[in-house]
Amino acid sequence: MTDANSTAPSILTRADGATIAYHRQRGKGPTVVFLGGFKSDMTGTKATALDEHCRELGQAFLRFDYFGHGASSGDFRQGTIGRWADDAVACIDMLTDGPLVLVGSSMGGWIMLLAALARPERIKALIGIAPAPDFTEDLMWAGFSPEVKEAILRDGEFARPSQYDPDPYPITRKLIEDGRNHLVMRETIRLDMPLRILQGMKDPDVPWRHALKLIDAYASKDVTLQLIKNGDHRLSEPADIARLLATVDELCAG
Question: Which residue pairs from 234-237 have beta carbons closer than 8 angstroms and sit at least 24 positions apart in sequence?
Answer without folding.
Answer: 234/45, 234/46, 234/130, 235/46, 235/129, 235/130, 235/198, 235/200, 236/44, 236/45, 236/46
